[in-house]
Amino acid sequence: MFKQIDQKKALLDTKRPLSKHTVKSLHEKLLLEWTYNSNAIEGNTLTINEMKVVLEGITVGGKTMREHLEVINHRDAILYVEEIVAKGESVSEWQIKNIQRLILKGIHDRYADVYRDQQVFISGANHIPPDPFRINEQMDNLMEWYEKEAKLLHPIIRGAMLHAIFVGIHPFIDGNGRTARLLLNLELMKEGFPPIVVKVENRLNYYEALDKANTAKEYDDFIRLIAAEVEVSLDLYLHAMN
């Protein structure tokens, strides 16, 4: 499944280090698109151009404070993930809580970096997340899987499964989807892949593949969806090299 992707990744590696101008340009493009799509999937109504000006410090009339904060917070969470990557640190529960805390900063501070104490349901999904009293155990199991079995997997499989299993647990009251997509990209970036953007127009396929992963424990559809986006990002970087 990954032969062509791995070849493109190897080609990109031969072109490193990239020029500072290219890196800055690609970073700004992906940061904006990642922030736009990840928030749009969760219902944020700001357009990509409106998000661009919000990131520049300008308020958009007719939009809620929450929508503005979601943009700024997501940008800050991306920068935090990039710090983790730069330090070469492994994913931990503490980092996961920090990512979610940044996402909810000023929005739902009481729900930030603490696991939920009530039952939740995922709109449109057949999968029902575990009862609150099971969250700690399932998060422990996830981290144990990550530290042992996951290390042997291809980075795309590891990142996709980390995302899917985490969303299935749905440990927080809010911010689970954005946290999961940040964790996915954290895994990819640690291995030298560029971050990917799960596009809002692919939301239906994304949700269906996630639901299949969590109800039937069949991850192939979701892994293929993520792999396709990895190839898109690699193509973007390789095109910038020409």
TrEMBL record:
Active site per the UniProt annotation: 170
Keyword presence, Cell cycle: no
Upper classification of the organism: Bacteria, Bacillati, Bacillota, Bacilli, Bacillales
Residues the UniProt record annotates as site (Important for autoinhibition of adenylyltransferase activity): 42
Name of this protein: Fic/DOC family protein
Stretches assigned to the Fido domain: 91-228
One function term, GO molecular function aspect: ATP binding
SUPFAM superfamilies xrefs: Fic-like
Keyword check for Methyltransferase: no
Annotated positions binding ATP: 174-181, 206-207, 214
